[in-house]
Amino acid sequence: MPHVKIYHGKGVDEEQLKKLLEEAGCAPADDVDVEEEAAIEADETLADDPVIEDCDNTQGEPETLVVVLNPELGDDDQLEGVLKGATARGCIIVGVWPKGTISGTAPPPFKKYSSDQVVWDVEAVRKAICGSENEPAYQDPKGAPQPAPDTPRHCC
Q: With contact defined as beta carbons under 8 Å apart, do 2 and 64 qualify?
């Protein structure tokens, strides 16, 4: 089972998000504080801090950071640090459009670091998190395919 972390702005029903992830077979880990990790990243101690580890849990499954793409993320000062830190650790970053969203764009930092961008749907989320053989999915809020964003990848 994938090790899943969640990150979202205000206005997101976290219980509904956890329910979506559970139904997709990807329940979030309870032992993770993404905001604490962002603070560590902001201090630029990522490489030297033992708290931040590679995104492989003890079972060898890659970690996934699920980010709810609500409008408030555009004003989130921590978002870029969270995404940059997750990418540096090798995490898969999956954006999920909020339930009922019909229009919008992902925030610029998300476009830089994301792996997938899908609608609030059990099957779409399952494929994005667990579908290792699938190409990344980039969907607009209505579920229509859109071109993959330019995502710079950094070698170690």
A: yes
Q: Is the Cβ–Cβ distance between 124 and 113 less than 8 Å?
A: no
Q: Which residues contact 48 (CB under 8 A, 6 or more apart)?
A: none
**Residue scoring higher pLDDT (98 or 154):** 98
User: Does CATH place domain 3-130 in 3.40.50.9200?
Assistant: yes
Question: What CA–CA distances, in Å, run from 7 to 33, 34, 79, 135, 144?
Answer: 9, 7, 9, 23, 24
pLDDT in tens, 32-76: 455 555 544 444 433 333 333 444 444 556 789 999 998 888 888
